[in-house]
Write a structure and sequence with these properties.
Strands 3-2-4-1-5 form a five-stranded antiparallel β-sheet, covered by helices on one side. Strands 6-9-7-8 form a four-stranded antiparallel β-sheet. It has a two-stranded antiparallel ribbon with strand order 10-11. It starts with a helix and ends with a helix. 49% of the residues are buried. It has 546 residues and is of the alpha+beta class. It is elongated and about 85 Å long. The longest helix is centred in the N-terminal third of the chain and has 30 residues.
């Protein structure tokens, strides 16, 4: 056994994948309907670290995984993040996260005083229960000015011992609240306005226009009046097939095709008149064809569909878009991503031209721009090094995690700068995020596990208990107040809690439970503010309240 341990200790890359090989299968096990997912790699790493303290993955490898994961998450979540600000949802979510963190800081101060903890131990408890290494580093920087350097280890011990509770307790509270509220996450997501579950099929219905209120309206006017999300297909008018443009107006007795979710199509049926048994999308194929094309032309990325002017230039329309496992209804403001597959209705002879427009290369659609990826990630890491000054002579840094995520959000918002495309194909983004998670969890786990055997049992139990209590209070506050008072969905609150905790393992857990991307969206919305607040509050705990 000793030679094997020597091998792992001297080869961190072998250790990394050994930890992953143990943790990933454990993460797939289900208990009470819940799984740990990739977060099980963290606990596998802790086991390796406790087995032999030499089994520790270097910090630079751990930080690389964290940076890749959060940068890719920022790129992927940017559209939803900035769209949420327009509707006011992001502001409400950030207020909830900020309120929970402020109350958590006050509770931490009270617990620290009751337990007789030092200022550094309390700051370490706050950082560990909040699973945020950046706030611990900020506390170190602040403590060097007011405390003896030899006492900095107190904060590190408190952080290491409360950290496991900061990971596990939110999962326990989330699972318990889901049972208490009796929420089926999949059914709840399906009932949310505008949400389409991954893999949900779009339906194609043909309508006959018999209501006078619909006559003379364009496609945009119809969708505005009905407030549905649907795409208009072909029109059959007096035995002639038409491809509708922005200026095409419906006439009485037109047969018109719409593609969308069943509930939206039922609304259109009531508005237009009736559903016709004559399914014209299956007829007239001698003139039109419905074919799928891969989006691999980088020139299209970041541009709204309306700029392509397919109906007027090529007598073609996009009926639906498939992104990953999700079917999307196209609209004029939709922006395509590399790897999307679009279904186009057009004349058969137009296929060659349209293939050239979209690229239609599966290989090219799977390739990312790694020059843009490298530049963007480097910019994020540099952003994390920039000192930010606050009133009271406080200085903090966003760090690796905050800088990478913020830069990802910014670049994901603009999508491209000149010829550099910062968005990534869906499959590429998922793989990079998973790789980053596994690397980060393995490194963080081995680092935490190595220090645990040297800690007295009484101290271990104290910090575990305080960390669990502090995290349970803040988690309960976020979930109960958000669900009961703010009427947010539990799907959204799972990601919001993960963002408040700045904990990617909790995000992975919530995503596994929900089976959709809603937790990732709310995570990206609150994570930047939560990170900054934790960095500031950890320093404030040292300077002002203790």
């Amino acid at each position: 056994m000793r030679p094997f341990l020597d091998l792992l200790a001297s080869n961190p890359l072998i250790l990394l994948f050994a930890v992953a090989a143990v943790g990933v299968p454990i993460g797939k096990l289900r208990a009470g309907g819940a799984t740990l997912g990739f977060s099980a790699v963290l606990f596998a790493g802790m086991g390796f670290g406790m087995w032999d303290p030499r089994l520790r993955i270097p910090d630079h490898i751990t930080n690389l995984g964290l940076a890749i994961f959060l940068y890719c998450l920022g790129i992927a979540s940017a559209p939803g993040f900035f769209a949420a600000f327009k509707g006011g949802s992001a502001l409400r979510q950030n207020l909830l996260a900020a309120g929970a963190l402020l109350i958590g800081a006050v509770v931490c101060v009270l617990l620290g005083r009751v337990a007789g903890l030092s200022a550094l131990q309390t700051a370490g408890l706050f950082s560990g229960a909040g699973t945020n290494a950046s706030s611990l580093a900020a506390a170190f920087d602040q403590a060097r000015a007011v405390h003896a350097p030899g006492q900095l280890g107190d904060a590190a011990v408190a952080y290491a011992l409360s950290f496991p509770a900061g990971i596990l307790m939110p999962m326990v509270v989330f699972f318990a609240m889901q049972r208490w509220f009796k929420v089926d996450l999949q059914k709840e997501a399906a009932a949310l306005p505008g949400y389409r579950a991954p893999g949900e099929a779009l339906e194609v219905w043909t309508f006959r226009v018999i209501n006078e209120s619909a006559v003379g309206l364009t496609k945009r006017e119809i969708l505005a009046k009905t407030q549905v999300l649907a795409a208009m297909g072909r029109i059959l008018r007096k035995a002639v097939y038409l491809v509708p443009t922005a200026k095409t107006r419906l006439e009485l007795n037109d047969l018109v095709v719409f593609i969308g979710a069943q509930a939206d199509l039922q609304c259109l049926e009531a508005f237009l008149g009736e559903r016709s048994p004559h399914e014209i999308h299956r007829r007239g194929l001698e003139a039109f064809e419905d074919f799928g094309l891969f989006v691999s032309n980088a020139a299209l990325i970041g541009r709204p569909l309306r700029e392509l002017k397919l109906p007027s230039r090529h007598e073609a329309i996009i009926s639906r878009v498939r992104r990953g496992d999700q079917n999307l209804v196209p609209h004029g403001e939709m922006r395509l991503e590399l790897g999307d597959r679009v279904w186009v209705i057009a004349h058969r002879e137009s296929r060659k031209v349209l293939s050239a427009i979209f690229g239609d290369s599966y290989r090219a659609s799977s390739e990312g721009d790694f020059l843009a990826f490298s530049l963007g990630l480097a910019a994020g890491l540099l952003l994390g090094l920039v000192p930010i000054r606050l009133p009271g002579n406080l200085t903090f840094h966003l760090g690796i995690s905050g800088g990478a995520l913020l830069m990802g959000l910014l670049l994901g918002r603009f999508t491209r700068i000149g010829s550099w495309v910062f968005s990534m194909p869906f499959a590429t983004s998922v793989v990079l995020r998973q790789l980053g998670l596994v690397v980060f969890f393995a490194g963080a786990g081995t680092a935490a596990g190595a220090s645990l055997p040297r800690i007295p049992l009484s101290t271990l139990l104290l910090f575990l208990a305080l960390g669990a209590l502090l995290t349970a209070i803040s988690s309960f506050l976020v979930l109960w107040w958000g669900y009961r008072r703010m009427k947010l969905s539990l799907n959204t609150l799972g990601g919001l809690l993960a963002g408040t905790q700045t904990q990617s393992s909790l995000l992975d857990f919530a995503t596994k439970q929900s089976g959709n991307e809603l937790p990732a969206h709310s995570y990206a919305v609150v994570y930047p503010l939560a990170t900054v607040l934790k960095i500031v509050l950890a320093q404030v705990l040292l300077v002002r309240f203790l």
